[in-house]
Design a protein that fits this description.
Length: about 230
């Protein structure tokens, strides 16, 4: 195990919290795109930089997203696991599919969330192609079941700090669910409103990640301290 700070060409810094022959666990900074796509042009991504750091990664998983078994939005910071071998890639992908990976987030939302604990179960559907999601009407086709647990950590009247645990892993799931109940993320320019210093940084941090190591079969839990500024 080792800890290193890997400087990216973008000026962003990735903290590699753990690395062995099969995988690495890193702390992605906010503002960094995870992988390329139609909307990404001439921008260094996390995948680009990781392949530069570990060239064999280019042969692991999908060519467009080498080593990736999950992702975080550009403006979400926090923990990610990256597979370094094809065997690890397949086993970690299966773990995410079977929902045995445990993820927790800190989220600062607008308004006063009244219930201390709540389970948000709303089916989601794609809107505007693949760029945006929405809670789907019950009769809508092509919906995806989704579930998110939220727990209130602290209230300030105009905003609330939540501990969030997504049970499913749909695109934008946390952001859509919180917006749907009237408490969008502070700084979410798509599902909420942009105000003040948080116009380019939504206050969402993946602070805990637990999974079964694909080689040793030991369940590992990684955590980082809260870094949200509010």
């Amino acid at each position: 195990m080792f800890f290193t700070r890997y400087p990216l060409q973008t000026g962003k810094v990735v903290n590699i919290l753990y690395e062995d022959a099969w995988l690495m666990v890193l702390d992605k900074p906010t503002g960094l795109v995870v992988h390329g796509g139609e909307s990404v042009r001439e921008q260094q991504t996390l995948c680009d930089q990781l392949v530069g750091y570990f060239p064999p990664l280019k042969d692991v998983g999908e060519a467009s997203r080498p080593g990736l078994v999950h992702r975080l939005d550009k403006h979400t910071e926090g923990l990610m696991v990256v597979a370094k071998t094809q065997e690890s890639y397949l086993r970690l992908r299966e773990a995410f599919k079977n929902r045995t990976v445990k993820k927790k987030y800190y989220a600062m939302v607008r308004g006063n969330v009244l219930e201390d604990d709540r389970c948000l179960e709303y089916a989601l559907v794609r809107r505007n192609g693949v760029k945006k999601m929405a809670v789907a009407p019950s009769h809508h086709e092509n919906t995806k079941a989704s579930c998110t647990y939220i727990h209130v950590l602290q209230r300030w009247g105009t905003k609330t700090l939540l501990d969030v645990q997504p049970i499913t892993g749909r695109m934008h799931q946390i952001r859509v669910h919180l917006s749907h109940i009237g408490h969008p993320l502070v700084g979410d320019s798509v599902y909420g409103k942009k105000k003040g210093i948080h116009e380019t940084s939504q206050l969402l941090q993946a602070y805990s990640l637990g999974f079964c190591h694909p080689q040793t079969q030991v369940f590992c839990i990684f955590k980082v301290a809260m870094s949200l500024r509010f």
